[in-house]
Structures are given as C-alpha cells and as structure tokens.
C-alpha cells in the first residue's frame, strides 16, 4: 500500500496535476543537453502594470481563492481529463516573446536562508487567469542573483494550447487562510521557459522560472481602504531553494511537495488542497509518455498526489529544520500504474543543462526598484 502524502504545513490552498493513464514503457533517455531555446515572455513590465495586477488581487478577491480552479497541463479551460492539449497550438506572438542568448549552463545553486531568521518559507501558491477564469498552482522560490525567481510547472504560467501567457500572475509564499499573505504578494515580471513548451506543449519542458517584482502586502489606509505596502525582494523575505541539474535518476532520493486537492481514481477526495503536503523521500527512475512528447521524464515512487500539486517542488537533501534543500524538478504528471484506487507516482521533466539556461535567464532579469 502506498504511503499517504504527509501533512507538512497547515493553511494553504491548492493546485493541479494532469491525470494520465498508466504507461508501461520506461526508457533510459539520453542525458546530453540539446541546444537551448530559451524565451522570456513579459508579464508586468512597469509600475502601472504591477498596480493593475495588484488591484485585481485586492483582499476581497484573495479571500475567494479556495473557489478557483486548479490549472491542468496544456488546458486553459481547466479540464482534469487526460485529453491534454489540442494538436498544433498557436505560436507565441512575436512581439511578446524575446529569444535569449545561449549561455554556459548554470552550475548548481546553493540554497539560501532569508535575510532574517533561521528557517525559510519558500513554498506557496501562484494565482493567475487564463481568459476570464482564475486558476492556481503550487510553486517555490529559488535562490538567484536577482533574489526574485519562482519555479513552477510550465502549464502554471503559459498555456501552450492557445500560445498565451497567464494574466494577473502572482506568487504567494506560505499562504494563510482566507487569502492571507504573511510573507507578501509578488507580481510576475517575466516568464522564462523553453520554446518547446510554449510552441508545442512538450512535457519534457513543462517547467517555468518566473522573475517576480518586489513584494507587497495590503494594509489599511487612513480612510480604511486597502493600500499597498512594499515588503522587499522575495528571497530576502523567504529564502530560496538551491538548484541541482543533470542528476541521474536512481542515484538519489527526492521529496515532492504540493497541495493535492482532486479526486482519486476511486472517487475519494482525501486531500483538501488547503495544506502543503509532502511525499516521503522516494526513489526516482526515467519514464516516458509518448502521447505527451515526454521522452526524458523522471518518475517518483511512491507518491499518491492527486490533482492539486502541479508546479510543486522536488527537493533533494531537504532539511526540515531550515526548510531548505535543492530543486531537482517540479510536479508535472500523476500516474496510476497499478490501475487501482489511488495514484501511485508523480513525474517531473528532467532538469538538465537546458533547464539551467532557462533558470539563468530568469535570474539575470532586473525589476523595478519599488512597487508602491
């Protein structure tokens, strides 16, 4: 029997994983890096853009986040079936996408504590819109030289089916009940991703590194209205996970985190999506899913995450005291290998030197100096 996902931190919301049928093929994919095709898609560029997004996420709307839909891979419509993205998605608009110059692969990045305190709060939720509907996913802060990078799944930032980035994208680390944001709200400035996610929904690249602006909190003004108060950079406030690249599956164990909320195959709903959960450290192996163009995926077993954990981090050498470790993947797909009542594993794209190029792009971008 698969160990149940362990409760980790109370008072959070939820995200989603795509439900896929069991696949029987497991291949040891080549680990050599392919030529990088890294893109930066702008979100909120100016102070006016930041305030527009902030005004959308006023406290009254944040209080409704329990009602929003977990984002599903490849589907801006939020479907939780295995139908996935439609064939031939639209290409990104040329004016909105900027090609990044190829760099040397990023070396491993060390985890970082916040400027104050002895423990980090890197994990949280992202909220955004596709079209006229609100969605959410899991995510985590990653240590970076600009101290402003969030890692999540590609489908939690960019809809490859329609060829469009998310609107009104924010990250809320360590979210509290009723829309609480004790460590600030961070508006997305730019998405860094691989063109094979944006262009064709290739699940080998279902990851995104989002550069975020300085954070803010809502405070009461003199007239009782909500007013933005700048709280500084993300990493300064919550710390950042490290980053590990090109780790051979089977040579390490990893702890997966997320906010599962969806239905299990037997129809039960054991998780409420309001609590950060973890699967105990498990073994990893290569996996493939031809229907998703996944040729070099990494599968973690056992893990019974249900829809509600997309974008949640895979952490190597997790230190429960400092609440830090190094990022080695993000939740992308769930699996029901034994065709029984519970999901039994989860998979992530393989983090290789190409992933390092995407990360480095996000870590190099600057943001505006103040958001109020």
Automatic annotation (TrEMBL):
Keywords: Signal. The keyword Signal applies. Residues 126-349 form the Peptidase S1 domain. Residues 1-29 form the signal peptide. SUPFAM superfamilies: Trypsin-like serine proteases (SSF50494). The keyword Signal applies. This is Trypsin-like serine protease. It comes from Nonomuraea composti.
């Amino acid at each position: 029997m698969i160990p149940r996902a362990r409760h980790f931190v109370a008072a959070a919301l939820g995200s989603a994983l795509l439900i896929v049928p069991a696949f029987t093929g497991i291949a040891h994919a080549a680990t050599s890096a392919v030529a990088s095709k890294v893109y930066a898609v702008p979100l909120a560029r100016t102070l006016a853009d930041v305030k527009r997004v902030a005004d959308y996420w006023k406290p009254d709307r944040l209080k409704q986040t329990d009602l929003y839909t977990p984002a599903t891979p490849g589907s801006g419509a939020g479907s939780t079936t295995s139908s996935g993205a439609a064939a031939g998605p639209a290409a990104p608009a040329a004016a909105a996408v900027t090609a990044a110059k190829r760099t040397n692969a990023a070396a491993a990045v060390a985890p970082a504590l916040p400027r104050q305190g002895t423990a980090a709060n890197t994990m949280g939720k992202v909220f955004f819109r596709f079209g006229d509907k609100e969605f959410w996913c899991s995510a985590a802060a990653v240590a970076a030289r600009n101290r402003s990078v969030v890692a999540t799944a590609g489908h939690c930032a960019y809809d490859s089916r329609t060829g469009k980035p998310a609107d009104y994208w924010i990250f809320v680390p360590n979210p509290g009940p009723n829309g609480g944001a004790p460590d600030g709200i961070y508006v997305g400035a730019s998405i860094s991703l691989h063109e094979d996610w944006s262009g064709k929904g290739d699940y080998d690249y279902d990851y995104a590194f989002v550069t975020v602006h300085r954070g803010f909190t809502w405070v009461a003004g003199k007239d009782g209205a909500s007013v933005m108060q700048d709280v500084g950079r993300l990493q300064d406030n919550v710390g950042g996970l490290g980053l590990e690249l090109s780790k051979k599956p089977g040579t390490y164990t990893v702890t997966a985190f997320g906010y599962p909320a969806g239905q299990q195959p037997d129809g039960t709903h054991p998780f409420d999506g309001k609590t950060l959960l973890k699967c105990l450290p498990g073994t990893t192996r290569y996996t493939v899913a031809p229907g998703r163009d996944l040729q070099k995926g990494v599968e973690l077993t056992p893990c019974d995450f249900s829809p509600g954990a997309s974008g949640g981090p895979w952490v190597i050498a997790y230190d429960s005291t400092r609440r830090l470790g190094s990022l080695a993947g993000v939740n992308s797909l769930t699996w029901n290998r034994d065709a029984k009542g519970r999901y039994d594993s989860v998979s992530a794209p393989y983090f290789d030197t190409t992933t390092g190029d995407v990360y480095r792009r996000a870590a190099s971008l600057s943001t505006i100096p103040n958001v109020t």
